[in-house]
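Suppose a classmate hands you a notebook page containing two proteins, each written out with its sequence and a corresponding row of structure tokens. How would you begin to make sense of it? This section walks through that situation. The first entry is reproduced here exactly as it would appear on such a page.
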Amino acid sequence: MKFININISEKLIFLIFCLVNLLPILFGLFTPTMDGAAHLYNSQLVLSLLGDNNELLQSTYAINTEPVPNWSGHIILAFFNLFLPAYLAEKTLLIIYLIGLPYAFRYLILQLNPSNKIVTYFIFPFTYTYLFLLGFYNFSLALVFMFVAAGYWIKFYNSKWSYKNIVILFVLILSTYFSHIFVFAILMILIGIQVLWTSFYNMILNKEHIKNHLIIGIKKTFLITLISLPFLILFMLYFQNRNGIDNYTYIETNELFNWIIKFRPALVFSEMSESPINLVISYTLGAILIITIFVCIKNIHLHFRRNVAKTKTFFSKNDYWLVVIGIITILLFTLPDSDGSAGYV
């Protein structure tokens, strides 16, 4: 009974963190962002184009019929604009994001390790990010869908998939794609690495059943490819239709290292006042990563030195996250910052 009470208390504490985290956007009518007002205006234009018989408006604007991966924020804002004042429509969207992101991240972490609840609180410094306060609402919402989709895939990975599971995952991937194409790409990379790593891990752990685990891995690959296929096709078509754009701009390597050290995603208004806090967060996360890598290296050393019979492998089933970190870091230093058409990466 005591365990149940502690569990409920911890959930309540997390909820309180979420509610306190909302305070900055609850004061004042509007939250000052760069693109937020444009998103709000565009959502009202969409409603007017669909519902109003305004010849001047129809002759000036038209809805883009291309399935552009940048829709979710506009759709949500347009929906709330149907029955709410503009400032409340935007505020509702922000509340959805600021509550959705912590709980989506928590959902993913608890699928990986249900006892690791403390890690779920690390998401809060990443809620009011530079991109969010620039008004990149679609990108921000994409992170919510990505975490839920990844957690849902991991939760049911070893289960027999039903039509209900497939439909839910399809909707989550659809929501991620039509929020932001880059976040969709990260989701596909994450799931792909998870399938390969899990298959390899199971084959090493159970060498007598290598064939069975190989078949399972192939089936899971086929399943996620089938579910994601429409969006993978749209992904390729999106870039194929933009082959003419070659005005790429890159950021200097030393500047990118500077961003990592200064925890750039959380640096929003004033570098002078925010840098001290950002450095603490950056060094803390860096220390955790170094300790994690050190533990992995130590486990490998002990495995080969002592040849411990009890452990059939020197890595864990969740170590693929280090591979994901490595790939995202490589992308950070190799991808252009812009494609010349405001396509910031």
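The notebook's second entry, a different protein, reads as follows.
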Amino acid sequence: ARASNDLDKARHDHGQALGAVGRLASEVEGATVRCRKAQDDCVSALPRLRQVLAVPGLLAAAVPVEAPTDEAGGEARPMAPSSAARLLPAVDETPDGLGKLTDAIRSLMPKPDRVPVGGDGVRQSLRQRRDSLGAGWDAEDRQPEDSLPLHIEVTGPLGRMPLPDATARAHEQLRTMASLLSAKQDQALRNLLQGLIAREVADKLHAAKELVGLMNRRLDTVTTSQGIGVALRWQRRDDLDPALAGTVALLAKPPDLRTVDEDHALTAALSERIAEARRDEPEAPYRQLVGQVLDYRTWHRMSLILRRPGRADERLTRRTALSEGEKKMVSYLPLFAAVAASCDAMAEAEPAAPRFLLLDDAFAKVSEDNHPKLFGLLVELDLDFIATSERLWGTHATVPELAITEVLRDPDLGVIVLEHSRWDGRRRRQDP
């Protein structure tokens, strides 16, 4: 009885197993059909994928850059199209070949870091940038088939080529020109440091010190009626960065007295400063950049030292306690001394050079009681002058001699009359 029951159960299990085998055989047959179709799809998709990869510039634009930075430490360079193409393996026309190719593409592609942009977005961005392209350059989008990716072609002095090709060519040309400029700049700096410009900078620094000395010698001889005198102090600014301060010290030394190491240090320092100026003003001519870098006036500061009887010398500031008249006198003293010192310097080369200055609307906003003092300063500094004014006559005891021309205008008759007179230090006489 037990054997009969086991037999019935075994027959039942056998029937179920046969049914499962039938179902699995049917599933295997369907899977085999689907597998064959998928394999056929893979093989047929491989040429299409290669056609997509052949879109000009696509692979080079998608693959990361060749190196993080270039030799000069600037921007990263894009990978050359030929280099990008060599990163993909050559595969057979099989599903395994497609798998290897897609795996290679996925391993090269960086993860997207922004929202994907469609063709319309690319076209809109291109339209916005076309107006900013340099002269002779243009760019336009190309898409022979709607199912293929869009690409950009650039037209310019280098010819017509895909955008990544043009980018790589432009970077290569930029590196070449930059290296040529660096070599020429280095040679120009060496010539400059050993040539006329370096010597002239040293001469200018020396001449500036001499001029300040001449002005101070003139200022030593004049004071206001209150006994107030001034002196000038021209010195290197204390807020210069250490590198520039060292450069200024080397430039102040005559070229013949500099050592080879000092010349190298000076060349490197000036080259760096010119490179910084070039980055700030890339369109500026080289002559202008050199002029800015070697402008010795920006390296120094002029201070006015006030000397009052019974008090220590002090630097003149906005907070210095002086009356309005004293402020006017003190402000005119260094100006007149600068003119006198310049005339003294010219007199060394040409003793007959005139010593005069022009004063348009002379001593405006200066109270009349200070006019004799200001005219007297000009006389003390041995300066002649031509002054125009609506209210000044210059007829003061501090002026030994003066020629005066008064302009009279009659609006009714529409004429202008000139009346001439002379001042002899005591009274004014009308010219006949």
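A careful reader of the second entry would note: The first strand starts at residue 138 and ends at 142.
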